[in-house]
Design brief:
The chain is α/β, with parallel strands linked by helices. The protein is built from 15 helices and 13 strands. Strands 1, 2, 3, 4, 5, 6, 7, 8, 9, 10 and 13 form an eleven-stranded mixed β-sheet that branches. A two-stranded antiparallel ribbon has the order 11-12.
Length: 452
């Protein structure tokens, strides 16, 4: 039972500290929609999504109104389309993305994720067709997000897929050049992708998930930042304990919303993802939390240690508040979506190399980073390979969402708007990795994979 003090604390966190439920995401299995006729398959996909998610948005809005808790996004994730479309007699999977887009617009959700392929140990013909269709699919739809998992701790890294994704990102950026390469903001390349991630652009409904499920992502960088202002100069033990208690309160709110949405939609409750997902709004920044710990600017020496403490304390606090914590859970560092990260990157304090180091200890990876439009595809592939290696060796999820902004150079800004914010174009190393990427094959799994 919540005390009056706890209720007042929660109200203050919502009103003044940017606490919100970032997303209610309904995961839907599309395995039953496989057809040899692609038009019939697309029709089945549209019908099933619109039937299952018909009341998702209205239910989220009703909970938001009744409980006074902001629910920023209502989203859908689906079975990786490479699996669903494999039976279809077609070489172009873009119509499947169009069906997803129509379904998303009919249901009124913000985004739909799952135009995806899992290729960590090799590519099927369906996987190759899906990846080849990504540039057209994401440049001709509005709400569809895509992801490709190119590595895992158990399988190693599929370098043929890594090379292909570098070229795919370049093609997609060119096709959406008038929007600053915006299509690339809807594409994530993973290592160790999880099946129950509610956050876009990397969400998909894993094959180990039920027919349908409700996953909730909560977020509260502003709440954590405010809490740390009360322990200025205190030892890190106190800092960690303060973050843990705060994460506990945030997660309890998410658990409440998830269970209520699950009941009203007659859909099993999956997980609460308690990731600190920032926004461009002032006071809703992960970077500012790190600076509150004593750093002059995010990106300076000590940043990785501060982020490690934050990520660990968030997880420890959250698991005490819910028996179903999952997804990614921790701290996100998307550059364009974090006001403090934007400022740090613009000042030169936060570089691509430092961001890579930080991804060793955070929840995801190199996220929403703009680089010059003339960056070679092989350089993009090498960046993906580096990030995948961090995930593979450390048995954690890592990802790359990178935008080679057409016509932009270092120091320029790329505007995406809304929650995607704006990104300063950051430099990449000028030295070629082409011969490295061209080798192809598979980087073997590390010793950590031999656990059974």
């Amino acid at each position: 039972m919540l005390s009056q003090h706890e209720i007042m604390q929660t109200i203050q966190m919502i009103d003044q500290q940017h606490l919100d439920v970032r997303t209610i995401t309904m995961g839907i299995s599309l395995l039953s929609c496989a057809r040899s006729d692609p038009k019939q398959a697309c029709g089945a996909i549209y019908d099933k999504i619109t039937r299952y998610a018909e009341k998702l948005v209205s239910t989220g809005e009703a909970i938001e109104k009744e409980f006074g808790i902001p629910i920023v996004n209502k989203r859908i994730s689906v079975t990786p389309i490479a699996l669903v479309a494999a039976a279809a007699e077609t070489d172009n999977y873009a119509p499947f993305a169009a069906a997803l887009d129509r379904a998303a617009k009919t249901t009124g959700v913000n985004f739909i994720g799952g135009f995806s392929a899992l290729v960590q140990k090799g590519m099927t013909e369906a996987d190759r067709k899906l990846i080849a269709s990504i540039p057209e699919a994401l440049s001709t739809t509005d709400l569809v997000c895509a992801s490709v998992n190119v590595g895992s701790t158990k399988a190693g890294i599929d370098m043929d897929a890594v090379a292909l994704m570098g070229r795919t990102i370049k093609d997609l950026a060119d096709r959406t050049a008038s929007q600053g390469g915006f299509g690339c903001a809807k594409l994530v390349v993973f290592c160790n992708a999880v099946e129950d991630n509610p956050f876009m652009a990397g969400a998909f409904h894993g094959v180990g998930e039920p027919e349908k499920v409700i996953n909730v992502g909560v977020s509260g960088p502003g709440v954590v930042y405010h809490a740390l202002q009360g322990v200025k100069g205190q030892p890190f033990d106190v800092v960690a304990e303060t973050i843990k208690k705060t994460a506990f309160r945030i997660t309890r709110m998410g658990q409440l919303v998830a269970q209520e949405a699950s009941r009203r939609l007659d859909t099993p409750f999956g997980i609460v993802d308690l990731s600190l997902a920032p926004t461009p709004a002032i006071g809703d920044s992960v970077a500012r939390i790190l600076e509150e710990m004593g750093l002059e600017v995010c990106g300076t020496h000590g940043t990785t240690a501060a982020l490690a403490l934050l990520n660990d304390a968030v997880k420890k606090g959250g698991v005490m508040a819910s028996s179903h914590v999952g997804g990614l859970s921790g701290a996100f560092i998307p550059v364009s979506e974090d006001e403090g990260m934007i400022a740090a990157a613009s000042s030169g304090a936060l570089t691509l190399d430092k961001l890579e180091a930080m991804t060793c200890v955070c929840s995801v990876g190199l996220d929403m980073i703009a680089v010059p439009g003339d960056t070679p595809a092989e350089t993009l592939s090498a960046i993906i390979a580096d990030e995948a290696a961090i995930g593979m060796v450390n048995s954690k999820t890592t990802a790359v969402r990178i935008i080679p902004a057409p016509g932009k150079q270092v120091g320029d800004m790329v505007e995406f708007g809304g929650l995607l914010g704006s990104a300063p174009v950051q430099p990449v190393h000028p030295f070629s990795a082409k011969a490295f990427v061209d080798r192809g094959g598979r980087i073997p799994a590390p010793m950590q994979s031999l656990k059974n």
